[in-house]
């Protein structure tokens, strides 16, 4: 290595402090100015510029390719047996167990594992890891955040010819799957190349449906079995009922015959509360409600004709388009019709006429949605024409609450399962409205433009957090509500119960008043009819009465004119004097004419 500079210093001077002293200034270098360089100098225009003392960064958004994943599983039935032992043969399994239990290695293993297992059991009994320590404490009210929602996923119809999502159903175990029914409800708009399939989606994977359902006719509605998450039942466009078991493939396990099915599309099908968990009932626009046992779909177990006259006449039946069944009221169910009438029915009635208990009439068009409040089953929600209405079972003349008329047609609605005062509606302009009737009654709390096409179906997950909307273009949009719209608020049940009771009482008072007015009008009309029937023969005919009325009218007019003339004479003396002068002049002229006549008579004589 080459040494460039060498500094020498005595050893005793190492670490000595520096000593400074004052001395006069000394010029070391003198550089005189160069005039030629000064001529080349260009003065810079002063300007202000802000400088940020940090690194410059930019933000960009890119739409990356979605990672496609497949879920695979193994159905493990029973294993661990030797090849020569058949697990289905009880004798062989018992013989093999006895042989193993006599083995010394088995006994030693049991003794070693027994102490470990005993320790784990005692530990589990001592500490409950699932214990909720703060269950009884009141929930702390969160900060009042504005109501909001965000889109999680959009499940699009994978076929080229897009169809309307006419029905949705959440998987009963956790709601990780969503079943969607696809069909074209526009008359004679279905093309030959249009697919008949419906799909089950995994909400985490919108790229490809998890399972395809292949019906004989497009599905209009479908519903998961709440007791068995592997089974579904669906209603087809041609009126047939189909039953699927997802463990047995895409084809329906059972299918009812065309002769025993509905004559029109099945718009709603619901599972019933039963011991077997295999009963369901369906409604169609052919005017019938049919009960089915999915184990044997050859024919319906029961039938009800929606005849308003309660005579069972199918020609006069009203077409059903919505259906409601509450598990806590197993004998009651409700049906919404195309004519805007809601039927309240009792399944356990003996005769068909007694099954239709009463009707509620309040819509100008079809009742597309009908659902009881999960917290207050006596109050139910209906959607038809341009309004949503809340009814009470005790008031049949009118609804107790209703929204104002919207600019677009309402197609579906449902209550929130977690908040009793919140319900959702979808409209044909692609808007999802969230209503909180405790907060605001005239306008929705939150309105979201979900898509540009009409929304036809709506279903809320059991926890009230996720909402699925089906559109006319074949897209099922999954939205997540904020905690304020999905979490039960303090005193919400008591406040809503007081509101429903108050509105019900008000409608009862109005209904009693209207009944009293109608009774008075009826008695008045009956009295007038009796008076007309008790007229004697000597009374005047209608023509004579009209003539007499005209004479009375003209006499009254003449009397009024005379009275006004006399009043004018009293209030205007000048008019009276002028009139007297005219009378005097007229009298003198008469005298002159009389004298002139006398002279003529004399001359003639």
From TrEMBL:
<dbReference type="InterPro" id="IPR015943">
    <property type="entry name" value="WD40/YVTN_repeat-like_dom_sf"/>
</dbReference>
<keyword id="KW-0505">Motor protein</keyword>
<keyword id="KW-0677">Repeat</keyword>
<dbReference type="GO" id="GO:0045504">
    <property type="term" value="F:dynein heavy chain binding"/>
</dbReference>
<keyword id="KW-0853">WD repeat</keyword>
<keyword id="KW-0206">Cytoskeleton</keyword>
<dbReference type="GO" id="GO:0005874">
    <property type="term" value="C:microtubule"/>
</dbReference>
<dbReference type="Pfam" id="PF00400">
    <property type="entry name" value="WD40"/>
</dbReference>
<protein>
    <recommendedName>
        <fullName>Dynein, axonemal, intermediate chain 2b</fullName>
    </recommendedName>
</protein>
<dbReference type="GO" id="GO:0003341">
    <property type="term" value="P:cilium movement"/>
</dbReference>
<keyword id="KW-0493">Microtubule</keyword>
<feature type="compositionally biased region" description="Basic and acidic residues">
    <location>
        <begin position="520"/>
        <end position="536"/>
    </location>
</feature>
<feature type="region of interest" description="Disordered">
    <location>
        <begin position="520"/>
        <end position="605"/>
    </location>
</feature>
<dbReference type="InterPro" id="IPR050687">
    <property type="entry name" value="Dynein_IC"/>
</dbReference>
<dbReference type="GO" id="GO:0045503">
    <property type="term" value="F:dynein light chain binding"/>
</dbReference>
<dbReference type="GO" id="GO:0036158">
    <property type="term" value="P:outer dynein arm assembly"/>
</dbReference>
<dbReference type="InterPro" id="IPR036322">
    <property type="entry name" value="WD40_repeat_dom_sf"/>
</dbReference>
<keyword id="KW-0243">Dynein</keyword>
<keyword id="KW-0963">Cytoplasm</keyword>
<dbReference type="InterPro" id="IPR001680">
    <property type="entry name" value="WD40_rpt"/>
</dbReference>
<dbReference type="GO" id="GO:0036157">
    <property type="term" value="C:outer dynein arm"/>
</dbReference>
<keyword id="KW-0966">Cell projection</keyword>
<keyword id="KW-0969">Cilium</keyword>
<feature type="compositionally biased region" description="Basic and acidic residues">
    <location>
        <begin position="545"/>
        <end position="572"/>
    </location>
</feature>
<comment type="similarity">
    <text>Belongs to the dynein intermediate chain family.</text>
</comment>
<feature type="compositionally biased region" description="Basic and acidic residues">
    <location>
        <begin position="589"/>
        <end position="605"/>
    </location>
</feature>
């Amino acid at each position: 290595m080459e040494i460039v500079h060498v500094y020498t210093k005595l050893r005793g001077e190492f670490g000595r402090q520096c000593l400074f002293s004052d001395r006069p200034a000394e010029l070391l270098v003198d550089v005189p100015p160069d005039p030629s360089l000064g001529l080349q100098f260009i003065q810079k225009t002063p300007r202000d510029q802000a400088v940020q003392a940090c690194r410059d960064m930019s933000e960009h958004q890119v739409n990356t390719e979605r990672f496609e994943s497949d879920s695979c599983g193994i159905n493990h039935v029973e294993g661990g047996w030797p090849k020569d032992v058949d697990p289905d043969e009880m004798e062989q399994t018992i013989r093999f167990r006895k042989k193993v239990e006599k083995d010394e290695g088995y006994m030693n293993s049991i003794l070693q594992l027994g102490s470990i297992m005993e320790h784990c059991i005692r530990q589990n009994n001592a500490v409950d890891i699932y214990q909720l320590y703060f269950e009884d404490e009141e929930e702390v009210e969160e900060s009042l955040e504005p109501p909001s929602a965000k889109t999680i996923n959009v499940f699009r119809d994978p076929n080229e010819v897009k169809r309307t999502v006419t029905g949705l159903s959440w998987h009963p175990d956790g709601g990780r799957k969503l079943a969607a029914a696809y069909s074209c409800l526009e008359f004679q708009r279905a093309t030959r190349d249009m697919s008949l399939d419906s799909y089950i989606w995994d909400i985490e994977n919108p790229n490809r449906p998890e399972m395809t359902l292949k019906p004989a006719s497009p599905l209009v509605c479908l519903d998961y079995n709440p007791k068995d998450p592997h089974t579904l039942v669906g209603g087809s466009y041609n009126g047939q009922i189909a039953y699927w078991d997802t463990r047995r493939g895409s084809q329906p396990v059972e299918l009812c015959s065309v002769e025993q099915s509905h004559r029109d599309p099945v718009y709603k099908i619901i599972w019933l509360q039963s011991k077997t968990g295999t009963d369901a009932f369906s409604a169609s626009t052919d005017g019938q409600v049919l009960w089915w046992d999915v184990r044997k779909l050859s024919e319906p177990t029961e039938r009800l004709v929606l005849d308003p006259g309660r005579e069972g006449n199918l020609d006069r039946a009203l077409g059903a388009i919505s259906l409601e069944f509450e598990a806590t009221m197993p004998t009651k169910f409700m049906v919404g019709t195309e004519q805007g009438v809601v039927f309240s029915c009792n399944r356990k009635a003996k005769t068909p006429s007694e099954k239709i208990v009463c009707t509620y009439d309040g819509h100008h068009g079809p009742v597309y949605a009908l659902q009881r409040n999960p917290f207050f089953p006596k109050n139910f929600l209906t959607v038809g024409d341009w309004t949503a209405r809340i009814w009470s079972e005790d008031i049949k003349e009118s609804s107790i609450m209703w929204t104002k008329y919207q600019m677009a047609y309402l197609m579906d609605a449902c209550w929130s399962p977690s908040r009793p005062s919140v319900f959702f509606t979808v409209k044909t302009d692609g808007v999802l409205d969230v209503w909180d009737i405790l907060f605001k009654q005239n306008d929705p709390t939150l309105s979201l433009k979900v898509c540009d096409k009409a929304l036809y179906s709506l279903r809320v997950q059991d926890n009230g957090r996720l909402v699925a909307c089906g559109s006319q273009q074949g897209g099922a949009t999954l939205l997540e509500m904020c905690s304020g719209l999905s979490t039960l608020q303090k005193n919400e049940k008591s406040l809503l119960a007081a509101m429903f009771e108050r509105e019900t009482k008000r409608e009862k008072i109005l209904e009693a008043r209207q009944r009293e007015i109608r009774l008075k009008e009826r008695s008045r009309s009956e009295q007038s009819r009796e008076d007309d029937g008790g007229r004697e023969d000597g009374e005047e005919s209608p023509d004579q009465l009209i003539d007499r009325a005209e004479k009375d009218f003209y006499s009254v007019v003449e009397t009024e004119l005379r009275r006004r003339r006399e009043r004018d004479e009293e209030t205007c003396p000048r008019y009276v004097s002028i009139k007297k002068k005219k009378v005097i002049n007229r009298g003198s002229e008469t005298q002159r004419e009389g004298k002139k006549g006398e002279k003529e008579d004399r001359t003639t004589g």
